[in-house]
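Preliminary data (for renewal application), 5-O-phosphono-beta-D-ribofuranosylamine complex.
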Amino acid sequence: MVEAGRRFVLGPALHCRRAQLRRPDIDIAVLASGSGTNLQALIDTPAVRPHIALVASDQPGAGSLTRAEAAGIPTLVLRWGEFDGRDPYCAALADAVEESGAKGVVLAGFMRILSPVFLDRFPDRVLNIHPSLLPAFPGSRAVQSALEHGVRTTGLTIHFVDEEVDHGPIVDQVVVPVEPGDTVESLHARIQVEEHRAYPRVVEAFVNGRLVVEGRTVRWL
Ligand code: GRF
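Predicted structure:
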């Protein structure tokens, strides 16, 4: 460290070491089937927005596409039914992501399971956000399952995607208490408030090459 007046600044040697540890910045494709409130939180984050090269969806009418278009981000619709199964779909999607220049992928409510045909093209480079504290309540009905189970706290998990559903190395988790009288809608709404804070923070670190996967552990640089 070098003292400059009353402030401390990073010396050149430390700057250099940090740059070596960090991976280079990357652009991302965001995949979103639904209304896209998490996508909107990413668009509204100045450190993330310039890194979004593509927004793709399997749903032609998805709100996420409207949000991307309004922000001037290229969009793509790949309809599930137009492909002969999961692997051809995943191959076409991976081709489109690569063509956009994106080196990483951020799932934001993407309701299709990605096979190894896709994941092997982006190793440790696909992030997902899930509305429960994994490994509790994986799957598409996470909020309802947590309520039905009677848990007192639930929350959200941001993780890298591997071949098992809602399973890969965990980057971040936020706890959300269940309130008396909660419905699926009221609980999901409070989880989403936290999602919109947590996902931009994680995705910013991701595009800046500051997340390193080591087995099941994710190290933040
Ligand atoms: C989020 O709650 C996320 O946890 C789950 O899908 C939902 C997407 O919501 N994977 P939105 O489309 O971002 O509003």
